[in-house]
Design a protein that fits this description.
alpha+beta; 5 helices; 46% helix; 5 strands; OB fold (Dihydrolipoamide Acetyltransferase, E2P); 2 domains
């Protein structure tokens, strides 16, 4: 036990031990009722992270150069692919991050113990590459059963509630024909749904949208801009 403690807090393993401790603290706080699984839902606006003027979020600064805008989309596609592979869109973010963090920590402890007994930084950095790849692959397979579980739970919940005509709040940095999530509040219970919009829009996190159509096969909901009803004077 003391040997594990020594290796866990050695400098080469500390970058993995600290995030693992953060995840453990989160789960303890969740058990205590201070957090829930949706407390740290990410903003998946990763397709607009790079701009020539250094600003983040293209929906805020819409004057980025066209070439850089295209490069940002290409980079964002990679991140979307990674998120999709890790099942982030179907499994709560903190569950995925906890599994990924634990896998990275376990591989780091094991790899440095057997292949880096002197705990040198150069070898530790080289071991991080296979560590990352193996952790991502293992996280993908470990969260697959959870993906099916949460999809089933979401389907069962949504089947009982007619969501067409409901107002939802956008959770992601954009809503497009291929990407987007929003939350519908049903009697105080938030339901997260996958939403799509074929029309060009400037939807961003926090915007209100109206659910107008449901694709029951794909479990997708088409949304349009929500217009606040005008009060008659």
């Amino acid at each position: 036990m003391l040997e594990l403690y020594h290796h866990a807090f050695s400098p080469v393993n500390l970058p993995f031990t600290v995030p693992l401790l953060v995840c453990l603290i989160y789960w303890l706080l969740m058990i205590a009722g201070l957090f829930d699984l949706d407390s740290f839902n990410p903003d998946f606006d990763v397709s607009h992270d790079v701009h020539v003027d250094g600003h983040l979020d293209a929906h805020v600064d819409g004057h980025a150069d066209v070439d850089h805008h295209a490069d940002a989309h290409a980079s964002g596609g990679i991140f979307h692919a990674i998120f999709d592979f890790l099942n982030v869109m179907d499994v709560p973010m903190m569950i995925v991050m906890s599994v990924l963090t634990f896998c990275g920590w376990a591989f780091s402890i094991t790899a440095n113990y057997y292949f880096n007994p002197d705990l040198t930084w150069m070898r530790a950095l080289l071991l991080m590459i296979p560590n990352f790849l193996l952790s991502v692959i293992l996280t993908h397979f470990m969260t697959l059963p959870l993906k099916k579980l949460f999809k089933s739970l979401s389907k069962d919940m949504n089947v009982k509630v007619a969501l067409v005509g409901k107002v939802a709040t956008v959770d992601t940095g954009e809503v497009s024909a291929t990407f987007g999530q929003a939350t519908v509040d049903i009697d105080g219970v938030p339901i997260t749904i996958n939403v799509r919009s074929s029309a060009k829009n400037d939807f961003t996190r926090g915007d209100k949208v109206l659910v107008v159509e449901e694709d029951k096969k794909e479990r997708l909901f088409k949304v349009v801009k929500y217009e606040e009803p005008k009060l008659k004077g």
